[in-house]
Every structure is written in structure tokens, then in C-alpha cells.
Amino acid sequence: MLCYKDERDIDFFENCLLVEEQLKEQVKQLPKNRRGYMVSPREIFTAAIHRPAKSFYLADAYQIIKIYKKSLCLSELPDTPRRTLYVDIRKEFVRLSQLYPGYSLLEIAEIIQDLPAPRFYISDNWAQILFYKNKNK
Predict the structure, then answer these.
(1) Mind listing the pLDDT tens digit for each residue in 32-51?
(2) What's the N-to-C CA distance of the chain in angstroms?
């Protein structure tokens, strides 16, 4: 399903580094008696998952249409990053359909292809693997 996996993984780790810096800055702002607080890797990669991503990292507009059609019967999917991706793609289709009435599914999918995504669609486990793999390079 995912076409630009390597690009997504690099972008995710860059987001982790940004989050890490932000969290360290927040720790510096704590009262002196709490400054010994250490930012945990889990805090970093969990926060990075929920930051905006550069794109949905999908191959093409046809893949986006396929996801949109699958999103119409979500009751079959457990609550996972994939389900969240489907929900977010559907929301974009609905929003853009209202914004551009008369556009075809393909035209809307082509717009979505160029949009940033509201988050990274990866599990906590995969985020942890990516974080440590890149941190130890």
C-alpha cells in the first residue's frame, strides 16, 4: 500500500529530532526542582507520530481512490494507523468534494496526493524501531 516508505521513514525521524529539541526546551523551562526530568524516547516518537507529515506517502491518485472506497466500510477494520489513514483520506474527499463540486474522484485524489497529511500513519512499535534504528546510526 505504501509507496514512499523510505521517504516517510526519513521524514518521521526528522520529526522525532524536532520533537526531541522541543521537549528538551520545555524541560529547561521547568522549575529548578524538576529540571532533572529526562525526556523519554517513547515521549519523542509518540509525539512525532501525531505531528503533520509532508504527505500521505501513497503511490498515486488511483491508490488514494482505492483507499477512499475501502473507507466507506470501516467497520471491518480495527482501530489502527491504517484505519486512521482511511478516515483521514475520506475526510479529505468529503472536504474537497464540497469545495470543488463537480470534480471527479480522480481529480480530487490528485489534489489529495499533493496535500500534507495530518499525522504519520505508523504504529507505536514501528515508530520505536525507526527511532532507535536511526538514532544509533
Answers:
(1) 666 666 788 999 999 999 99
(2) 27
